[in-house]
Amino acid sequence: MAVATTADIEEQAARKLERYRRVTYRSFMFAAAGFVLPSLYGLEDAYTSGDAGALLIAAGVAGLCVLAWCYTRLVREGLEGNVSGRNVVGSGVVAAALSLMLLTSPWFSVIPVFWVSAVVLSPMGRGRIVALCAGTGAYCGAVATLGVERLYPDSDAPWYVIFPVLVALYTAISGFVVFVNRYQRRMWELHQEAYAARDALARLAVTEERLRFSRDLHDLLGHSLSLIAVKSELAKRTVRDDPDRAGAEMADVQRAAREALREVRAAVRGYRAVELDAELAGVRAVLEAAGVRCEIGRLPDGLPPEVRSVLAWVIREGATNVIKHSEARNCAISLGVYGGSARGGAPYGDPVVLEMRNDGVRGAETAEGSGLTGLAERVAVLGGEITAGRHGRDGFLLRAAVPLPPAHGPDEGGTRESGQALPAGRPA
User: Fold this and answer.
1) Which residues make Cβ contacts (< 8 Å) with residue 417, sequence separation at least 6?
2) Span 406-417, mean pLDDT?
3) How far from 258 is each of 174, 211, 232, CA to CA, in Å?
4) Contact in structure between 252 and 230 (CB atoms under 8 Å)
5) pLDDT above 80 for 50
6) Residue 125 and residue 133: Cα distance in Å, rounded?
7) Rounded Cα distance, 379 and 402, in Å
8) Is residue 318 classed exposed, middle or buried when 0-12, 13-18 and 19+ CB atoms within 10 A define those classes?
9) Residue 423 scores a pLDDT above 70
10) H/E element, 331
11) Around Cβ 238, how many Cβ atoms within 10 Å?
12) HSE-CB of 173 using CA atoms within 13 angstroms
C-alpha cells in the first residue's frame, strides 16, 4: 500500500505548478506564430508587388526578429509579474516602426496586436489597458488610412470615413486579444494562488497541531508539577521535626512524578510513532531527489505495529547513511518473512528481514555510528539484530532481522516464505 507523505504531496504540487507554467508559456509562443507568419507573407507580398525593395524587406525581417525576441521577454516577465519598462518602450518603438509597413501591405495589421498581446500580461489597471488599446487603435487607424489611399487610389470612400472605421476596428481587435490574454494570465495567477494557499494551509495545520500539543502538555503536567512542588516544600519543612511524614510526602512526590511521566509518554507516543508505509514513500522521494535510484520490494502483510515501527526507523537511518556517507546511485530495499526464528525458537516467532543495499561505498566505510547503535538497541528490544558492512566490491548492506511475536506465527496468516532458510547473518 503506497502512502503519500507530505514531501510527496509537496513535490506533486510543485510539479503541477511548473507543468502549467510551461503550458501557459508555450501557448503564448504558439500564438506568436500566428502573428509572425502573416507578417512574413506581407513582406513577400510587398516585395512581389514592387511596393518594397530588397533593403526594406531586409529591415522588415530584422525588425520581426527583434520584435519576436522582445515578445518572448515580455511574456516571461509578464508571467513572473516584473515587466521592465525599458522592454515595453523598446518593443513599442519596434512595433510602431513595423506598423508603417501597412503602407505596403494590409498583412502588417497583426503587428500592433502582436505587441499589445504581450504588453498586457504585465500587471496594469483597466484604465491603462483601455488607453493602450485606444492609442494602438488610433495609431494603426491613421497609418492604415494612408495605406488605403496609397494601395487603393480608386477608392471612393473619403479619409474621414475610413479613419474612424479603422480606428474602431483596430481598437476592438486589440481589446479582444487583450481579454483573451488577460484571462489566460488570470488562470496562471489562480494556479499560483492555489499553490500558495495549499502551502499556507499546511503551515497553519502544523501551527494548530503545535498549539494543541502544548495545551495537552499543560493540562497533563500543570496539576502534577504543582502537586510535586507543594509536596516537596512540605517535606522540606517537616524533615527535621517529623521524618516519617516527610518520607510519606516524598513518596507521594515519587508517585506523582511517575504518573506524570507515564501520561507524557502516552501523549507523545503518537508523535514519535513512525509508519512503515509512509517512511518507505518518504525515503523513495528523498533518495530520488538526491539522485539515487530507489527500488522497494513488496511489503509483507500482517506485520504487528511494533515491528513495523522498528523497521521504519531502520529504513530512515539507512537512507540517511546512504545520503550522508556514500556515493550511491542505486539503492534496493527488500522485506520478507522467513521460516525459522532469529534466536532459535521460543519465545520468538518467524523473523521479518529487512535488507537495504546500495552501490556507493566510499573508501573504507564501516558500520560504526551512534545512529546504528541506537537502532541496534531498538531492534534488540524485540529480540532481533542488525548487521551492516560491505557487500561485494562497491556495495554496502544494512540488514535487520526482527522476530515476530508468537501470535504472528506461520498459522496466523500474513505473507510467509515457508521452508526458506534465514538469509546469511553477515554481509559479504
Assistant:
1) 336, 337, 338, 339
2) 45
3) 78, 25, 15
4) no
5) no
6) 13
7) 7
8) buried
9) no
10) strand 330-337
11) 16
12) 18
Kindly write down the DSSP assignment for every residue of 198-249, as one continuous string.
HHHHHHHHHHHHHHHHHHHHHHHHHHHHHHHHHHHHHHHHHTTT-HHHHHHH
pLDDT of residue 419: 34
pLDDT of residue 6: 55
Q: Cα(379)–Cα(307) distance, rounded to whole angstroms?
A: 9
Q: 401 and 342 in contact (C-beta within 8 Å)?
A: yes
Question: Rounded distance, CA 258 to CA 254, Å?
Answer: 6
Residue 370: predicted pLDDT: 57
Written as one letter, the residue type at 361 is: V
Question: Can you tell me which residue has the cell 507521594?
Answer: 252
285 phi and psi angles, rounded to 5 deg: -65, -45
Name the burial class of residue 1, with classes exposed (0-12), middle (13-18) and buried (19+) by CB atoms within 10 angstroms of its CB. Answer: exposed
The Cα 3–Cα 51 span in angstroms is 69
* DSSP character string of 334-358: EEEEBSS-TTSSTT--PEEEEEEEE
Residue 346: phi, psi to the nearest 5?
-55, 150
What totals of helices (H) and strands (E) does the chain contain, helices first? 10, 5
> What is the spatial distance between Cα 410 and Cα 335, in angstroms, rounded to a whole number?
16
What's residue 379's pLDDT? Answer: 83
Does pLDDT of 414 surpass 70? no
Which residue type sits at 211? L
List pLDDT tens digits, range 197-219: 777 777 777 787 778 777 777 77
- HSE-up of residue 293 (Cα within 13 Å, Cβ side): 3
Residues 367 and 78: their CA atoms lie apart, in Å, by 54
Per-residue pLDDT at 324 exceeds 70: yes
- This prediction has a pTM of 0.46
* Helical axes 276-289 vs 305-325, angle rounded to 10°: 10
Task: Kindly state the cell numbers that stand for 391.
Answer: 557487500
Give the residue-averaged pLDDT of 285-311.
82
- What is the C-alpha to C-alpha distance for residues 225 and 234, in angstroms, rounded to an integer? 14
Edge-to-edge strand list for the sheet holding 351-358: 293-296, 330-337, 351-358, 395-403, 385-391
Q: Which residue has the cell 474621414?
A: 160
Q: Which of 63, 122, 73 is nearest to 94 (CA)?
A: 63
